[in-house]
Amino acid sequence: MLTAERRQLILELLHKNKKVLSSELSADFKVSEDTIRRDLRELSEAGQLQRVHGGALLTSPTKASYADRQKQAPEEKKAIARTAAKLVRPGQVVILDGGTTTLQVARSLPLDLQATIVTNSPPIAMSLADHHHIDVVMLGGQLYKKALVNVGAGTVENLGMIRADLCLLGICSLHPDIGISVQNLDEAHIKRAMISRSVEVVGLATAAKLDTAASYVVGPIQALTYLVTASQVVPEALEAYKNIGLTVIRDEYVS
H helices then E strands: how many in the chain? Predict the structure, then answer.
């Protein structure tokens, strides 16, 4: 079997089973574990999977640029956003994390809602500029251009002065064992600070982000209070998250 053929089969197994183990691949393909580790390393470098100890997991689609991510599953994100927006109560202080799904949350907030939105996302702040009853607190920092969010020590320091009722957290990757993870270390620090300053935390995850992993861990699944995800995710795929203690809410998508 050619190397390219073996690697394609590895990817097919990964998408079917949500994970692969090096020892099992070695036995299945009758090659050494060193060969399998090399396959996984090169597939990881190509952005096609996320290596973990003993094997690999699916990687998140958030490696794409912000503009490209806006084109990914737009109707699914809108449906999740509409559902998540209903969790915001009048008078609350809400941290709204950056991301393309959380941007849709900002656009879904009722026009008569009175609340304070704290965000590190310039696009979200701009989308709320004409919302007459929402006060917007923009967190400073250095703009991380790929994700269009402010990051850095200044952003973390700003968050230290906030006590939020609710945090709506954009999810890059979510896995029952790995937890919440992201592709960028600075973003991991910001999300961790957002979680620590909030009474309740809502993770917003499209189907493609479930059971995936990224390089930098934000925290365990238990850091979330709620998970809002897509209606098309089969209930069986959510059992592991419910067993950990998460309240899982599927969106109200209407085709």
Answer: 10, 16
